[in-house]
């Protein structure tokens, strides 16, 4: 039987895809009783995430489901990147994970690490990292319900007290001339600060993000040590990264997605 949180994730994803969900469908899909599903729906309605209907629930009107929307795009690519990125992290490391869906996917591969300190501005990622041996540092600030993260001056003030970590940054788009970008200014500000205070920055970018910049700049290419992606980038990007002395990490072949084509960061 799926855990409470896993059931809620399935329910919300189904609601996002279809607009509505029924008790009977969810009961069969999750192999739990209709009474359990009704309790889950009532809980999600109390949290303001769903509206109860006869026999099920629907999405709340005018609600921004940004995190769920992003989490359902390029799922396989994100999992490949997340596993490769987690392979860089060693026991005892200090790292920063941004609040995006790729870093959230990465969290699942980090729970077996020992003595790891993880800085996050995402409540959801902090919950995903719950495991013995992990030290989780959450940034305070303005909470965004749609993205399940914290931003703003208070989050920045917390981050200013931290140094010496390895930053993993997922982005909304990249371009050669503009650098790495986000689609909202709050994320761009907090991620840019995380990069400036880090000892190294590893960029996480699936193939759909190349040559598709967002509106707000996060940082220049000089701040990036390596780029992890799901497939070999186009040759123009390969040449560009070589000129910038940025390491590329991507799967060698589909049969072994965690075996990297370029093994510059010690990934096996």
Number of helices: 10
Q: SSE order in H/E notation?
A: HEHHEEHHEHEHEEEHEEEHEEEHEEE
Order of strands in the sheet with the most strands?
A: 6-5-4-9-12-14-15
- End-to-end separation in angstroms reads 34 Å
Q: What percent of the residues sit in helical stretches (DSSP H or I)?
A: 25-40%
pLDDT under 50 segments (min length 5)?
Answer: 262-268
Number of domains: 2
Give me the CATH architecture of the largest domain, please: 3-Layer(aba) Sandwich
Shape: globular
Task: Count the beta strands.
Answer: 17
CATH class of the largest domain: Alpha Beta
Mean pLDDT: 88
Strand content: 15-25%
What is the radius of gyration? 19 Å
How does the major sheet shape up? 7 strands, parallel
- Given helix and strand content, the structural type is alpha/beta
CATH topology type of the largest domain:
Rossmann fold
Write a structural description.
By secondary structure, this protein is of the alpha/beta class. Helix 2 packs across helix 3. It has helices at residues 4-18, 23-30, 34-46, 66-71, 75-88, 101-107, 123-128, 153-159, 185-197, 235-243; strands at 20-22, 50-53, 56-59, 94-97, 116-120, 134-138, 142-144, 149-151, 166-170, 173-175, 179-182, 200-204, 216-219, 226-228, 247-249, 251-253, 256-260. The chain contains 10 helices and 17 strands. The strands form 5 sheets. The chain has a 7-stranded parallel beta sheet, sandwiched between helices. A 3-stranded antiparallel beta sheet has the order 1-3-2. The longest helix has 15 residues, at 4-18.
